[in-house]
Amino acid sequence: MKKIALESILSAFVTVIGSSLFTLLLSIPIAEKGNIRISDIYKTESGTLSRNIEVINYTNDYIDGLILKIPNTCKIENEKFISSLVITKRENKMIDYNTFSLDMIEPKTSSLITIQVQKDDIISFPNYSSKKFSVTSEKHIESPIWKLIKQVLPSFIVYFILLSIFQFFANKKSNELSEQIEKSEKKRQVEVDKLSEKLDKEEKKIEKTDKDLKEYKKNYYQKTLFIKKQLQDYEKELDFWRNTVRQVLFKDDKKHTQAENLFETVTKQLETYTVKSKQNLDLDEILFVVDELNKQS
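Above: the chain sequence. Below: its structure as tokens.
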């Protein structure tokens, strides 16, 4: 249980760190480098109308090429007194507007530009977005939370799309693997069923063979017992007739010589030498056969 808990915590930690680093890497290219704050029109002591423009550089590097576009009725009042950046007038084909390039914007610094304007004059920064600046005004104060959401939202969307694509292919691969395992399992089950069926058939064959063997042994012992009993009866009858022949035909033959000669002649003529040997049946053998018959029953 402790091992599972540690693995879960480690997995969660790695996931959080990985996702945070990934989000950070995605946020770096779209992170703001600075901010431009444009004040409302106000009247100076001399009676002219002016606007203040505050250019803030968040980075640790100088920034060049920020374009300022103002009507030709406006002029920059404090151009000569700004030491923190370089303002260069640009040539353009627009008669009603002048454009300026703001260069050498110092890192981690706020530079203030004062512009004399008319009531309806519009000040703009055409390339602020490409320079990764944001533009705000006194009338439009953006919530820090909403600003943070707007900064994080693009990276979240990209992260979500990439994660969805990864999850899609991961699920697809998982499903393919599951299908392969299922097919392999079905194939294995079919083979197991075939093997089981074959085994059942072999078991039935073995049972039948065992049954047939028992029946054969039973018949064998029955016939053996019958033959042995029959031979025993034949031997009794043979002994009876031998004795009868001796008594009837050879009453005066005390040594039974004539009788034995007769029996010898009969044996030679009939070639029944096993009868002459008078091999007695073994009682133990007969008892063994009876016992085996009892087992087979």
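The chain has three domains: 1-31, 32-140, 203-296.
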